[in-house]
Fold this protein.
Amino acid sequence: MKLNSFTLLLIFILLSSDDSETFKSIKNPNIIFIVSDDQSWKDYSFMGHPHIQTPNIDKLARQSATYSKGYVTSPLCGPSLASIITGKYAFEHQQTGNDAGYSDRDASLWIKDGYRFTKKKKKNNNYLYSRERNEKFDFIKKGFYRNKLLTDYLDIKGYKSFQTGKWWLGSWEEGKFNGGMTHGDYTKMGRHGDEGLKIGREGLDPIYSFIDQTQEDGDPFFVWYAPFLPHTPHNPPTELIDKYIKLAPSEAVAKYWAMCEWFDKTVGDLLNYLKKNSLEENTLIVYTTDNGWIQSNKQNRYAPRSKRAPHEGGIRTPIMFKLPKAIEPEMNTSTLVSNIDLVPTVLDFLNITGEELSGISIMEKEKLNARETLFVECYHHDILNIEHPTETVLYKVALNKKWKLMLPNTKMVVREFTLPEEQYYGYYSNQPQLYDLENDPEEKVNLAKEYPDIVAVLSEKINNWWQPVKYMN
């Protein structure tokens, strides 16, 4: 058969089209964000863990565009989750910590007190649920909610949104959701999720009921599923502990491994519900975590170089995007992707032009592949001076496929912190740390002195990137 020039041109156009054209033909897919809480990037079967079994997330990974070199924006849940819902870095959205500090004293005075004052006062005065803490946190919230959230964008498109699980910034109403679980009332122990933290651990019925209602009403939906899993308390079902106690080096590790599988089971329950109700084909699933975790062998907490740390154990995570017939499944082991990319990707799907954001839609493959550098911020747990929230930055990180630079804030990190109990709070070296991720993925050898030119280049990138906005309150 002889093909004319028009036919050849048509074939060329069809073959040249990519996923970006396909997804734009899908109108208002449902959206679910699945956000793991305190989980190492290695702690999945599909990522190579020899013992932890995660069959449901493994299946999701096979069905998704999965990026094994994903990164969080901050290795602390408060600022990290705020970045996921805004598409902004913490220095932009201003929620740089989990709690408001004990007083308005600046960080330098807190350092002079030997890094102990805040913790002691909180314990003695039940500060976390006090009026003082609440008033200071209200100040932070007022500034944060001047940002545009993903829920704001979705409301324009007629979405109904539902909050469950971890949520630091008050109630679901304040987060512009149409329904949810977190009340945020400090007089009722409202902090970092409160009633919302029951999701997953006590089933998924609130999510099912919400989705059922949206289907009756004919509305597209957005679900924020950020369960307190595998986060402490590590109290998984007995049968899972019995399974892993035979394999793990300690009971503490066995319980954590069991928590990972318990979380996986809840993901499976959610995905099976979608399939059973014929929602799988038109639902965009986005998977990530808030920050990393390495389980201590001896204690029921994280080990150094994980949560709150600038190391890979604190900031790396697999990131997944699944939408059948619109996103081609692949296991991408080289492209750098960040939680800062989640909101731009959703806006791209919905053909919404939002404010200028730092992230890149994963559908813009050429731009994504051309990205040279990712950035991460590490902050102290508390915002010690609420009028200057970026003051407590500990490390600014720039990384590419080969090099990673951790640049300390020496006003906070005033010396070498070597004890595990010091590193538990996110304090490590007060000197620049440069690692060759290709040849030293465990970050054992600091090459900053051997490669000052690389340090200079990445430092300049950090300085150009990290430009805190004037506080919005």
Observations:
- Residues 5-18, 117-125 have pLDDT under 50 and may be disordered.
- The two ends are 70 Å apart (CA to CA).
- The chain has one domain: 24-363.
